[in-house]
Alcohol dehydrogenase (Clostridium neonatale), 404 residues
Amino acid sequence: MTNIDIEQIVKQVLEGMATESTGCKNGACKCNESANSIPKTSRVAMLTELEHYEIKEYPIPELGDDDILVKVEGCGICGTDAHEFKRDPFGLIPVVLGHEGTGEIVKMGKNVTKDSAGKPLNVGDKVVSCMIFKDNPEITMFDLNKQNVGGADVYGLLPDDDVHLNGWFADYIVIRGGSTIFNVSDLDLYSRILIEPCAVLIHAVERAKTTGILRFNSRVVVQGCGPIGLICIAVLRTMGIENIVAVDGEEKRLEFAKELGAGNVVNFKDYKGNEALSEGVKEAFGGYLSDFAFQCTGSPIAHANIYKFIRNGGGLCELGFFINGGDATINPHFDICSKEITVVGSWVYTLRDYATTFDFLKRAKGIGLPIEKLITHTYSLDKINEGHETNLAMKGLKIAIINQ
Ligand SMILES: NC(=O)c1ccc[n+]([C@@H]2O[C@H](COP(=O)([O-])OP(=O)(O)OC[C@H]3O[C@@H](n4cnc5c(N)ncnc54)[C@H](O)[C@@H]3O)[C@@H](O)[C@H]2O)c1
Ligand SMILES: [Zn+2]
């Protein structure tokens, strides 16, 4: 037998396998089917009243030509989910939540060929969705591979629809044509679940860079070591900033801050009053105040305190208040004016930041940052209420729902 014969045989076998697995004879969709392995119904975790999800089962609908059916592998619990679970501030109940989700495409309409960045999409690819804020011209796909996807849907944040498969706390989700979706098959499951919160920090660092103060050799203080502050440290470290001091009151979190790249840590509980604390921060930098600071707590007191950690002419990125956390008292003369501090705010992210985040996660792993350890607890879908309770009790960092 010649090499050519062998190649022919292998080709025939592979083609045979491909035809067998493309069991769906319906020309209107592409599926790997496995079509018979897609169930007729899907479970969703629906928030039906405050602090209570109910597992409900709904039919998986016929897909439109532009739609995608994704088998959910996992989804992180976000602060927004926690607010909704506890208070339903926007009156969304009943609602299927979960927007930090990821899964595998199991079926797609015949028109679907590419993701929102122009990357090919196929059955078997791992994907994430993304929220779009269409009213902000910066937040557009136009800069990303010169495409502009408007009219995108948002998943896991909006009131329930008649199909019900519109949130990632579920077994399956239907992604409608025109939605923002990215092929992230080259990332592992935990990295994919962490994309959304990490994008918040990619954006914050981009905002910080606009001040012109943040440099490779800057002394940077990160206040607050919840997931947001910890990811902030990892992003700074991954972009080459080495001189980072983390401030928090929880020793365990401070220890993790070191693993993620903080060179030194300060426990604010060890200091009486902000003067002493700022001395502690100065000491942690070897006798200098910071050039730049990131405020990553939702505490107005922390906001008021942070100015004292920054040198004259330094910068501050305030990103700790995703929602209104109340007023903070500062002295504009001493804290901002006479020190000539440049302050920027940062809220959510742009689509461009989202794409940058995929590479950040690869680079973070590449330099050995244990980013996946941010996911401290996992629960199956039917234990989602417990997952939320663990989250509210602040027992872990990132809690995720993982489907078997
Ligand atoms: N800008 C955005 O788009 C955006 C997005 C998501 C979250 N957030 C905000 O970021 C904040 C942090 O999120 P998280 O998930 O990390 O929350 P978290 O509650 O898990 O973490 C906050 C951390 O701050 C610490 N802390 C509290 N007071 C402090 C003080 N005075 N000094 C130093 N540390 C202090 C706490 O011990 C805790 O570890 C939240 O308030 C959230 O609203 C903003
Ligand atoms: Zn989120």
In short: The two ends are 45 Å apart (CA to CA).
